[in-house]
Amino acid sequence: MSAISAKEVKALRDRTGAGVLACREALSEAQGDAERAVEILRARGQAQAAKRVGREASEGVVQSYIHAGNKIGVLVEVDCETDFVARNDSFVEFARDLALHIAAAAPIAVSDEEVPAEEREREERIAVEQAADRPENVRDRIVQGKLDKWLDDVVLLRQKHVNEDKHGGKTIEELRAGLASETGENVVIRRFTRFAVGA
What we know:
Shape: globular
Order of helices and strands: HHHEEHHHHHHE
Radius of gyration: 20 Å
Number of strands: 3
Distance between the termini: 61 Å
Strand content: 5-15%
Largest sheet: 3 strands, antiparallel
CATH topology of the largest domain: Tetrahydropterin Synthase, Chain A
CATH superfamily of the largest domain: Elongation factor Ts, dimerisation domain
Number of domains: 3
Helix content: 55-70%
Structural class: alpha+beta
Strand order of the largest sheet: 1-2-3
């Protein structure tokens, strides 16, 4: 395998936002395969982000979004560890994009754990009824699959960002973990409120 060129490192860095050394190491490990290097960097970034999850996030921003026509509005709180990161352009942009996403996608909770129990139980009952005519040995898997699909639709962290052109089909959790990796801080989507006229 030939040496990794500066051009390859720069291309990977532009694509991922990772540091020069991290890009060079990932390309070496992937033997020059840029796609595999992206996967390696993402895996490392998510692992590092997972280590930061326990750290206190007491700084942050509240962002708002009012949809054209003034019929839908959103307030969202995104927290981090330091005021320095809270003022960072990419952090503020993430919060703005998140508010726009919430207006369009109408999630009901930030995470699986925050989904109201009565709504989860209702969806599970519906899934059980829909699977009643299937063979008994596959019913549980069908019910779990339907419940997971519903959670993908209503849980903010599991939703794919509505702006696919900008975010390439990434989920909100992938975007949050990427920002945590980029900033080196724990990034927490604390809460949101979505207002819709007449709802």
